Amino acid sequence: MTTELPPALAAFFHATNTRDFSDFLSLFTPDAHVNDEASNHYGPAIATWINKATDDTKPTVTVTHISQDGNHFVITATVSGNFPGSPLPLHYHATLKDNKIATLLIKA
User: Fold this and answer.
1) Is the Cα torsion angle 18, 16, 10, 45 positive or negative in sign?
2) Tens digit of pLDDT for each residue in 43-73?
């Protein structure tokens, strides 16, 4: 287990919480893949996804646990916001490549 998030993942959660997405795509590899709510988003479409995903719900993510296996991280977090069931626990499965997010799978 690790106690600290790598910079790209820490920046991802910070951007989500502050909704400052000005450099958001720089956290991801050019061919990155995000899966959230059974929808897939690739490359530049990730910027559209994060804006739509946070616009109305205004989520706040609090990381509660981090585990690591090589370049793969599982981050458990409590997510609060303007959505039914808030707050709820989510699991972020992230794989890093060259210190950037290559895959991010968000699961309940």
Assistant:
1) negative
2) 999 999 999 999 999 999 999 999 999 999 9
Q: How confident is the model at residue 1 (pLDDT cuts 50, 70, 90)?
A: very low
Which of the following CATH numbers is that of domain 7-107: 3.10.450.50, 3.30.460.30, 3.50.30.10, 3.40.50.150? 3.10.450.50
Which residues, 6 or more positions from 74, have their beta carbon under 8 angstroms from its beta carbon?
66, 67, 68, 91, 92, 93, 94
Beta strand pairing call for 100-107 and 28-36: parallel
User: Would you say the pTM of this structure is higher than 0.85?
Assistant: yes
Residue that the structure tokens 């950037």 belong to: 100
Alpha-carbon span 100 to 22, nearest angstrom: 16
Give the separation between CA 42 and CA 28, rounded to whole angstroms: 10
